[in-house]
Design a protein that fits this description.
The protein is an alpha+beta fold and 219 residues long. It has a domain at 26-66 and 110-196: NADH Oxidase (3-Layer(aba) Sandwich), CATH 3.40.109. The chain is built from 7 helices and 5 strands, in the order αβαβααβααβαβ. It is globular. The two termini are 13 Å apart. This is Nitroreductase-like protein. Residues 20-194 form the Nitroreductase domain.
Length: 219
């Protein structure tokens, strides 16, 4: 199953796929922005409005934090990790040599997008469609993941680098308290972004033949 040159009816399709292919994980970031804060907000807002959700449940909740507000997230994470070190749950050497430098690198970026799921908002539809009740929470996470991916791709298209982090539940309580967020908002991921200061690592691919099967294709 080789890669072949194809033509699309809409040139935007090729552009979209090139953006998808160019998206990478960047860890070296600085607190600068190639676009306005309004433009960043527009990217996030469009993800909230237009990313689909199962049964149109619209369960994703998003918080955009920039500059000093962004730094607070990683101050919270550093404080939480230091608490684990003090309690003997995390080796001090590992924290000082590995975890702390990573957290400080996240803090040095320009912004963080916090992605939440409001599971409480699913109560009515779980009751209405009881046969699917155990599926709605995973459906909500799938929708949230699509929002994360869209924002990531769009930010990189505008000149940012980004990386996706998962520090829940370690930071959840302080995040909720610091920004007075509803208790029903459950944190899923943190997308850190800024202007890249280093190249991303090499990207390896498993054989596509082991991951994609096509049937009924015209010759």
């Amino acid at each position: 199953m080789g890669s072949t040159q194809v033509e699309f009816n809409n040139p935007a399709t090729s552009t979209l796929l090139e953006l998808v292919k160019s998206r990478r994980t960047y860890y070296g970031l600085k607190a600068e922005s190639p676009i306005s804060d309004d433009a960043i907000e527009s990217i996030v807002q469009n993800s909230v409005l237009h990313v689909p959700s199962s049964f149109n449940t619209q369960t994703s909740r998003v918080v955009l934090l920039l500059k000093e507000e962004h730094q607070k997230v990683w101050d919270i994470a550093i404080k939480a990790m230091e608490g684990l070190v003090a309690a003997g749950q995390v080796p001090k050497e590992m924290y000082e040599n590995h975890t702390k430098p990573k957290l400080e690198a996240f803090r040095a970026a320009y912004g963080t997008v916090l992605f939440f799921v409001d599971y409480d908002s699913l109560a009515a539809i779980k009751e209405k469609f009881a046969i699917y009740a155990d599926k709605f929470d995973p459906f909500a996470l799938e929708s949230n993941a699509m929002s994360q991916y869209l924002v990531w791709v769009a930010l990189q298209s505008e000149g940012f680098g980004a990386n996706l982090q998962h520090y829940s539940p370690l930071i959840d309580a302080d995040i909720q308290k610091t920004w007075s967020l509803p208790a029903s908002w459950k944190l899923d991921a943190q997308l850190v972004f800024g202007v890249p200061t280093s190249d991303p690592g090499e990207k390896a691919f498993a054989p596509i033949e082991d991951r994609l099967k096509v049937f009924g294709k015209s010759a």
